[in-house]
Structures are given as structure tokens and as C-alpha cells.
Fold this protein.
Amino acid sequence: MADEKIKNSRELEFAVFCIENTAAKLGVNAERVCQAFTEKSNILNGYIVPEYEILHTQGREYIADELVDMIFAHFGITFLRTLQCMPLGQTLQSPV
């Protein structure tokens, strides 16, 4: 995965879209997903931003499913369960 920073408002809006829709899919607060994508993994700058041109042409469900799969692949099911049960504001910890 290439490591790229957000370069413009379109990529920023898309990043927020990805975070919010993944959070909705998981039934958690978007802050938790943002932390998972940035502080506990490199999903935002290593996948979402570099693949913006391709990903933004896909539908909401496809994108959310893809990102949930990435969280699962990176952290495992235990982390997903922790993400869904953790009180807001608590720091995410990878089970790995």
C-alpha cells in the first residue's frame, strides 16, 4: 500500500464518507472508525486515499463492506467486537 496524505477537499469529503458509512455498517460511532483507520492502522493513508480514484466510483455498500473486510483482515473478529462494544472515548487496542 502506498502512503498518501489527503490532497484536496474531494479526497477529504470521501474520507469522511468512508468513515461515516463504515461506522454505520458496524453500528458504532464514527470516531471509533476514524481511530481504527488512522491511529491503529494505515487504512486511511495507505488504502482509502491512494485508491480514491477507483473507490469513489463504487457504491456505498461496496465501499463499507470493503472497509469492514479490511478492518477484519488487519485486526480480526475480536477487534471488530471490541470496536462495537467499547465506550466512546476509550482508546482502541489491537488484539494482535
